[in-house]
UniProtKB/TrEMBL annotation:
Gene3D superfamilies named among the record's database cross-references: Bactericidal permeability-increasing protein, domain 1, Bactericidal permeability-increasing protein, domain 2
Coiled coil: none
Family listed: Belongs to the BPI/LBP/Plunc superfamily. BPI/LBP (TC 1.C.40) family.
Name of the protein this chain belongs to: BPI fold containing family C
Keyword annotations: Glycoprotein, Signal
Taxonomic source organism: Canavalia gladiata
Domain named Lipid-binding serum glycoprotein N-terminal: residues: 33-258
Signal peptide residue numbers: 1-19
GO cellular component terms listed in the entry, alphabetical order: extracellular space
Amino acid sequence: MAPSIVFILLSTLLRVTSGYVLPNEEGFISGVISDKGLDYAKDLLIEKGIASIVLLQLPEIENSAQVPFVGNAKVVLSNITIKDIQVNSSSLRTGENGFVLVVSGATANLSMRWRYSLSSWLIPIGISDSGTASVKVKGMQVGLTVNLRNQEGTLNLTLLDYGCYVGDLSIKLDGGASWLYQLLVDAFEGNIASAVEEAISEKIREGITKLDNLLHSLPKQISLDKTAALNVSFVGNPVLSNSSIAIAINGLLTARNEALVPQSYQKGLKISSACGGLPKMIKISIHENVFKSASLVYYNAGKMQLIIDELPDQNILNTAEWRFIVPQLYKRYPNDDMQLNISVSSPPFIQVTYQDVGATIFVDITIDVLEDGEVIPVACISMEISASFAVEIIGNNIAGRLRLQKFSTYLKWSKIGKLHMRLIQSLMSSVLKTVILPYLNFKLMRGLPLPIIDGFSFQNANILYIHPWIAVCSDVSFLGDYYLSQQSPYLS
């Protein structure tokens, strides 16, 4: 078989089971595959497993048998090829010991070539012949049990038990005599059955070994850009129930190339499996601390600042436009160009509520006058911005858009005397709505990658707000075999 599909799904689509305690208190992104998701994974696994077996050629079989009144016949079966497999029933069960996949009542069709040579004292001249035959395999059962455990942030996959059993087979000759058919049935039935069983069992071993190697190659950290990296190391062991599989990753952002040291955040203990009554394959939950860690990393790196020297209304960036609002500014710097140096003064405060994501952002806007090539700071206005963040799923990323709720301004310092803040507030409102929020939304719409493997995509995703978690309830669709060639399935 080719079991990689299901177990890649199990190891990368994360956690959400009702009342589950997180596998480890440091897991801030978590999720589960529901029974619907497991059925999808099982069917996809079987489909891909069959594809890997069809056209598989089995080893040549040679045997001899005594034909009554004729003599000894040497028969060789070659080009034994599995043409197709049909599955009648299957099941994927989870339990404390791991995953159990069972396929029962399967049938398979084989093609082969035969040749024989016959000699005896009655027939001094040897007789030989050749032809083709088809084989129908019935009552085939395939099963495997695997265990998935966490070791230092990496998942280890262990094959505990596996096997294939062939119940019955029938052979149809193209050419040959009736005695040869009976000879094939009597002498070769066990050989053909064993060859099928061993070939499928070997495919299972190969698949588990390749998948285990793939799991070991998964990165523990993914660089998002030149500033930040996402900690995707697994925490705790997978939690298996009779209808779902739960796994968690650390999920926090760190400065790029920074050692993966847990940050001090208050831990969430439980999350709900509810998807608002929607039967979805997976549910991925993201703790608000993921967003807080992103806020802290980009703030500490000095990335939350912007210099504005162009505006839709360019007149705002000239002291002449301010002559009635701040006369002393125009008096001291008549008709000089200006720029606005905008910087976030502290890491934005982010909190998931039961309706949306709330954000409080403290911004300092320093007014600079450009005179004779010199940048002259003349005043600083602080703004407290309250906004809501509407989460969206764009491709396989979680992104969103800020919506302004309210804002307030006050004068932080001034070199040009007292300012009339009521008059200035309208100008700041224009800057906020035309520059600051569009700029932030441009950055936010890039989003953060959700842990799903290449080749799969979210389908009909719904967003739920369950303080302090954001939950993505979604089905998934399989787009192709791109993932097979990737060493780093998280990357898109």
